[in-house]
Amino acid sequence: MYDVCIIGAGVVGANIARELSRYQLNICVLDREDDVSCGCSKANSGIVHGGYSDKPGTLKAELCVKGNRMYAQLDEELHFGYREIGSYVLSFDQESLATLRRLFEQGQQNGVGGLELIDGEEMRRREPHVSAEVTGALYCAQAGVTSPYEFVIALMENAVANGVELKLRHEVRQLEKRSDHFLITTTQGTLSSRYVINAAGAHSDNIAAMAGLTDYQITPRRGQYLLLSKAQNYLANSVIFQVPTALGKGILVTPTYHGNLMLGPNAEEIDDKNDVSTDEETLRFIAQTARLSVPGFDMRQALTSFAGNRPVSNQKDWVIDASRLPDLINLIGIDSPGLTSSPAIALKVVTLLQDSGLHLEANPNFQAQRAPIIRPKSEDFQGTTTHSDPALHLICRCENVTEAEILDCFRRGLPVLSVDAVKRRTRAGMGLCQGTFCGPRVRALLAQELQMKEEDIPQRGHSSTLAERARKTQLKKL
Question: Does the reported pTM lie above 0.70?
Fold first, then answer.
């Protein structure tokens, strides 16, 4: 019997798990995927928003501002990567200037610090590569960038080190309320828990419906992105937004935490929650729209594209509620700024659990610190692709990832079951060659670690092995 079962190992579930690991509780986290952070948590902008975009008095506004201020301390403890680089919202005409003034006033109501309205000339002085058409901007000093999947990995590693059980490939099929506990049926069996936290992201409405709460509805809103090489990162020092629309914060241009340049996302409501495909027409639209802000980027430097689905609900605000069914906390429609707000959401959930009767006693063995996997290399680093020392043996030349870093990521308490899982932890495969050189070397190390054949090692998930892809290719030829 668990005290708390968290459904969903994204950024919200991972923050809750880590926060609850401060207490003497029996906790498990369930996720249907092969790794943590496989939903929207890995496929988003990685922006830590300031908090001026959301309507005052909403949960979004309250928790975004609180969560933003928690990132620096979390990064000191968990070393996932965070930089406060500031953000700008650009205007191009008188109507959008009025929108900037409204956002400025809204941010002040929400308690956002470091807000400033500037004219176009000052904007170009600060960011020399923005468009000559810019007439003004709203600056927010407290915005930043992070590596979202590394954040989730760090949170969950620390939670597991502090006693939380992580159960991957456990898709929830049934949730039944008994007198003093829930019976949770998954694809791997059945377990019991006194409290359940529904942090299932795009599938949170499905989990709620299993418990009889059928009035929640999630509509996936897909956002596609373009990632450019580090050679383009001189074009933006801060996050550069356009004036937001009814569908979201619009097309942005931003440096990533690791120094690439990223464009996107668009916003399109789709039917399939699992559809994270990209298409050439949309990517062309993203590039054209991004040029309105920063015209000078070179699309020949594009490395890859990706997409993520934001869980937009039919409710006016986020739902973080424990009142409708005793001992079940539903988190419904946690879309943007969910990444930013997630640490504060976790604190709110802990309070709701206490109010529901869960006794919290401090865990005397709680350890807040988690060592980084990625180690910065000094200028005199002597790594080679043939070195016998794992600390100097380069597996990924583009990102300077060593064998020692990859072996380290295997020994962190979380299952590492695919080539992409290694990529998310170490950046092996994220450089200019996109894994052409290091992919086979990572696969060989994984095969040795998992005692499997190399052709059976998945690229992404358990259905993406070389053998499975070869089989599908053969079937298409029949």
Answer: yes
Q: Tell me, what's the pLDDT at 417?
A: 96
Are the folds of 1-82+144-217+314-372 and 83-143+219-313 the same? no
Q: What residue ranges do the domains of the chain occupy? A: 1-82+144-217+314-372, 83-143+219-313, 394-477
In whole angstroms, what is the distance from residue 327 CA to residue 346 CA?
16
Predicted pLDDT at 380: 87
Say how far apart CA 95 and CA 114 lie, in whole Å: 23
| Amino acid, res. 456 | D
**pLDDT for position 244:** 83
Low-confidence ranges of the chain (pLDDT < 70): 246-248, 462-478
CATH of the domain spanning 83-143+219-313: 3.30.9.10
Domain 1-82+144-217+314-372 adopts which CATH fold?
FAD/NAD(P)-binding domain (3.50.50)
Spell out the residues 6+ positions from residue 184 whose beta carbon is closer than 8 angstroms to its own: 5, 7, 30, 172, 174, 175, 176, 190, 191, 192, 193, 196
Beta strand 27-30 pairing with 165-167: parallel
Catalytic residue among 49, 170, 181, 203: 49
CA 228 to CA 297: how far, in whole Å?
A: 9
Say whether 49 is catalytic.
yes
